[in-house]
Amino acid sequence: MADVKPFVLDFNLLTGLCESGKVKPTLRHVSNMAAQFADHEAAQALAAGENPLLYEFYGLDLPEESGVLQFGTTKLYPGKVGDEYYMTKGHFHTILDTSEVYYCLSGQGGMLMETPEGEVDWKEMKPGDALYVPGRWAHRSVNTGSEPLVMFFVYRGDAGHDYGTIEEKGYRKIVVERDGKPVLLDNPKWVTFS
Ligand code: S6P
Ligand code: ZN
Prior knowledge:
Blueprint: E1 26-29, H1 40-48, E2 53-57, E3 69-76, E4 80-81, E5 84-85, E6 92-93, E7 100-106, E8 109-114, E9 120-125, E10 130-133, E11 138-143, E12 149-156, E13 161-162, H2 164-169, E14 173-178, E15 181-186
Antiparallel strand pairs: 1-2, 2-3, 3-12, 4-5, 6-13, 7-10, 7-12, 8-9, 8-11, 14-15
The protein binds D-sorbitol-6-phosphate and zinc ion.
């Protein structure tokens, strides 16, 4: 069993950031996932230019064991690449049948999810909403608002992250702005991009 002592961490309710600096965030810029955006040219142009920060999130240095819980926050900034909202890379868990809980602290957006069999779901999230992502569902946060979308998450410590499947195949759906509102469209690049 993991030898972890009780500890406290601070995550700001509005910004999601650990202001004490006890843990450091991982940063993802457009260049880290340019191929994931449907408008590849817009993504490449952004990556080659100002290369904006899309999001930052915390992962703790805890043993990757089934009895451990990983937790932290994701701060996803507002913006679009072409007409597609800023989003996280998205992943399946390596142990596919491990679930995750997200709790929205601030901002507005949603979670785009899909199973290996092709079932798709989109759940909107606003402050105070808790989302259960069952095992087998890939999950990607999307910021459809004008402020950072901040979410707290918890998942099993040994779940692991399979990014490769999404990197190779993409998501079946994209979330884009139409007349100021988010709509889901088929991803024109699904499976075809490398
Ligand atoms: C981990 C959990 C989150 C994400 C974070 C960034 O299982 O779902 O901590 O890692 O929101 O997203 P991504 O897709 O880049 O890992
Ligand atoms: Zn996850």
